[in-house]
Amino acid sequence: MKVKQMDIISERSLPKTVQSRRVRFWRRARKLARLDRLLLMSIGLFVFVLALQFLKQGTAVYGQQMIQWFSITNATSTLGFGWLLAYVFLSGSPVAAVAISFFASGTLTDLQTFTMITGSRLGASMVVLLVGFVYYLRGYRQKSSIAIGILALLTTAAIYVPALIPGYWMLTSGILSPWQVSASQPLDSWLDGLITPIIDTLGLWLPGWAFLVGGVGALLFSFSLFDRALPEIDPSQNTSLITQRLIYNPLAMFCFGALLTSITLSVSVSLSLLVPLSVKGLIRPKHIVPYIMGANITTFIDTLVAALVVGGTTAFTIVLVEVVSVTLLSLFVLLFCYRPFEKVLLCTQELILQSRKTLLLFLGVMLLIPLVLLMV
Question: N or C: which end of the chain has fewer CB within 10 A?
Answer without folding.
Answer: N
